[in-house]
Amino acid sequence: MTPNTAAFDHWIRTSFVEMNTALEELYIASGNGLEVDGVGDSIKYAIRDEGAALIQALLAEGKTNDGSAEAFALLGNVGMYLGSMRRHELTNPDHEDRSPFEEASALAIHIGTSIGMAPRFATAHLATHNLAVDGVRKSFTSLPDEFLFIDENTRAILSFQSAADALVRISDLGVSSPVADILFGQAAAALRMVAVINARLFLKLNVDRFFCNVRPYYKPYRVGRTIWRGANAGDFAGINEIDLLLGLCRANDPYYAQLLIDKLPFMMPGEQQRLRACMNRRSLLDQLLDAADHQSDAPWFRANAAALLELCDLFAVTARQHHDQLVNKFIQLPAGAIQPGKLTGITASGPPLEVMIRSLETLRNLRCAVASGAAASRHADLARLAEALSTVDDTGMTTREMSGPGSGHDIGAI
């Protein structure tokens, strides 16, 4: 790390956090955290000017295109600076045709292009690759609700990644492998942990603090002439690997393919490679359906099909949590209290709120395999797999043998 890079990183971890926190406290005291014009202007200008001086030195140095972890971290720091300027309304893409921060834009574009990412801070910068120093991770402020959001979101991502890793290994071994049981168990445990983390976050996170004082840092902003959407909690490969390997979503579905294309630049290069590789894998659901007609009595089929159905149920729980609790409680409901004219730019992803909500509902329904007229839904295929596990007991009633990890699966929950 060069002296200029180290100086900028130290500033991001210290004075930058202190000044943003001071501004948030002023916004809170004013009674409306979204009305920032004319509040704490001297602090805003201090962030702007101190950051600009550090960035100018980095841009002149020009040693930022080696594709290393150091370059990735620097991209995050520049992006956080621009995110702060957007939050405090010192830049607003709705009122500009180019960013007023030319040197920061130049540095971000330089680094982003060299490592193959969007030229702004990404989820990984504040989650899976947020390097802690003396027990403190990077953040915009020191508000407890921001720490809570960052930490619990990171824990959920790490758990999703554990589930995805297990599913990839099952794909490598083959769904009929006798040792797949341990991997199905690992994936199930990881998804249960996601549900626990989500529930804890929804219980503890303050709605007003999140909506008014945390989320605004994730708004879209311009880098040069281009508007780049905000960081999204789903910008990592693992969540999509689960979609694709369980078979709930398919890479050749136009809606889902567009989603993958849109998110790739916001993922780390290694994550991009993982996602592209997974798009060429055959789902575990499709492999089991192929075997359903001639292997339905085989012990491996009964155990692994039951385990897959259980994973689909567990994954559906997390999808409903995200949409029906996080999106509804922490975004949709508080946004409903805002005057329509003030809703411009309210979403981190860029499009109007109602468009974002519809898109997220579509994704939730795919992940929950909701029965619908949509060709992409796997509801009928999951029902067929469940039917293959059916047996007839002594009373003549159709039941399901659940001898494997999927014990307790309820097809009605799909």
Count of spatially separate domains: 2
Strand content: under 5%
**How is the quaternary structure best described?**
single chain
Name the overall outline.
elongated
> Would you tell me which CATH topology of the largest domain applies?
Methane Monooxygenase Hydroxylase, Chain G, domain 1
Helical content band? 55-70%
CATH class of the largest domain: Mainly Alpha
Query: What is the spatial order of strands in the main beta sheet?
Result: 1-2
Structural class: mainly alpha
Uncertain parts: 392-414
Helix run count: 16
Rg calculated over all Cα atoms: 23 Å
Which SSEs are present, and which pair or pack?
Layout: H1 3-13, H2 15-30, H3 41-61, H4 69-87, H5 102-115, H6 123-126, H7 144-173, H8 180-204, H9 207-214, E1 221-223, E2 226-228, H10 237-246, H11 254-263, H12 269-278, H13 284-295, H14 299-336, H15 353-367, H16 379-388, E3 390-392, E4 398-400
Antiparallel strand pairs: 1-2, 3-4
Please tell me about this protein's structure:
The protein contains 16 helices and four strands. The longest helix has 38 residues. Helix 1 runs antiparallel to helix 3. It folds into two domains: 119 residues, Methane Monooxygenase Hydroxylase, Chain G, domain 1; 269 residues, Methane Monooxygenase Hydroxylase, Chain G, domain 1, CATH 1.20.58.480. The termini are far apart. The radius of gyration is 23 Å and the shape is elongated. The strands form two sheets. Strands 1-2 form a two-stranded antiparallel ribbon. A two-stranded antiparallel ribbon has the order 3-4. It is 61% helix and 3% strand. Strand 1 and strand 2 form a beta hairpin. It is mainly α.
